[in-house]
Amino acid sequence: MQDGRTTLSKFLIDTLDRRPSPHAGAGLSALLIDVAAAIKQISSALTRGALGGHYGSAQTFNTNGDEQKKLDVVTNEIFVQHCEWDGLLAAMVSEEMDDVHPVPDKYARGDYLLAFDPLDGSSNIDVNGVVGSIFSVLRRPDGMAEPCGEAAFLRPGHVQVAAGYAIYGPSTMLVLSVGNGTHAFTLERDVGNFVLTHTDIRIPDDTCEFAINASNERFWEPPVRRYVQECKDGRIGCRERDFNMRWIASMVAEVHRILMRGGVFMYPRDFRTSGLEGRLRLLYEANPMSFLVEQAGGLSITGRERVLDVVPRALHCRVPVILGSRNEVERIGRYHREHERGEDKPYTSPLFNERSLFLPEASA
Ligand code: F6P
Ligand code: MN
């Protein structure tokens, strides 16, 4: 480009079309441009806020039992319309559609599969908080019969050929990986271009910041309780430094902060959910985010295994997620292993040990 800036199209042509990767194949850049077009339209709809007439409930429920907001339905439709016509996709899966959506017969079908969460963090919509969209691209397995059904999607996240999210904050950004690092583009609204602003993002290995919905503490497993308690004990505890906590209730916003400055995000297994599955959906939340985090040098685990190695059991299955700065995620994984081996002692916070100000004698 003459002004030295790299637009999303230039980035994709340089990275994919001029140096094709063995996994990606032809057409991926065109598909990602269509995804970006959907994101621009969603960004524009969200910017109108209450004036757009899309606030409030749609009076329907998705397959996970979550109440759908009007904007969940509208943004899902925007994704479908922008991506089903181009001859590159075979089928789609979305948080807001119960079943696989095969590309309709009136359009050509291609070799890619798209899984997406069109509006992540939708409890933030009506309060004008940060929301996002998340997407994951797979290649259709060779030799699979038409039209693609569930089996095509039920593969571990390490087979993804591209993953990304859009964050609709004060600015709209698209964060993307096609397997050669994680890169971020900022939407230049008046021109309509995504411009590369963050090349090869690296998550710092260490951090003093964690994110978890602490209201669920009573349902957590012991390794997560231990980790969070140690963080909260700060410099008087075994970590010997103070930690900060954040919770935005949008996975996109949490992951974005971690990509920008490090941190750990946890939505762990808990005893509320049957089967201890966790809250986040594997295909269109945990997998794409884990791909981006690993491509930026971080880690993403369920507590017991790498998220990208989990074989999905169902389209909308959930999984525990612990991701972010490498050394902290490794530590939490170790706490899980120690717990399984019965090696973790019941944790006593230094707030209540013999040197504490909170001892009954001291406060008497
Ligand atoms: O999509 C699920 C999600 O909204 C995530 O974006 C977010 O991290 C989480 O759920 C918020 O959960 P809670 O309602 O427990 O705060
Ligand atoms: Mn979501």
Provide the fold topology.
Blueprint: H1 8-17, H2 28-47, E1 57-61, E2 67-69, H3 70-83, E3 89-94, E4 101-102, E5 112-120, E6 131-139, H4 150-153, E7 162-168, E8 172-177, E9 183-188, E10 193-198, E11 209-211, H5 222-233, E12 244-246, H6 251-261, E13 264-267, E14 280-281, H7 282-295, E15 299-301, E16 318-319, E17 321-324, H8 326-340, H9 360-363
Parallel strand pairs: 3-5, 11-12, 11-13
Antiparallel strand pairs: 1-2, 3-4, 5-6, 6-7, 7-8, 8-9, 9-10, 13-17, 14-16, 15-17
Helix pairs in contact: 1-2, 2-3, 5-8
The structure holds 6-O-phosphono-beta-D-fructofuranose and manganese (II) ion (MN).
Residues 120-121, 213, 249-251, 267, 279-280, 285 line the site of 6-O-phosphono-beta-D-fructofuranose (F6P).
Description:
It is a single chain. The protein is of the alpha+beta class. It has two domains: 191 residues, Fructose-1,6-Bisphosphatase, Chain A, domain 1 (2-Layer Sandwich); 133 residues, D-Maltodextrin-Binding Protein, domain 2, CATH 3.40.190.80. 29% of the residues lie in helices and 22% in strands. It has nine helices and 17 strands. The strands form four sheets. It has an eight-stranded mixed beta sheet with strand order 4-3-5-6-7-8-9-10, with helices on both faces. Strands 12-11-13-17-15 form a five-stranded mixed beta sheet, sandwiched between helices. A two-stranded antiparallel ribbon has the order 1-2. The radius of gyration is 21 Å and the shape is globular. The C terminus is likely disordered. It binds 6-O-phosphono-beta-D-fructofuranose and manganese (II) ion (MN). The site of manganese (II) ion has 4 residues, from strand 5. It is found in: Cytoplasm. Belongs to the FBPase class 1 family. One of its GO terms (molecular function) is fructose 1,6-bisphosphate 1-phosphatase activity. One of its GO terms (cellular component) is cytosol.
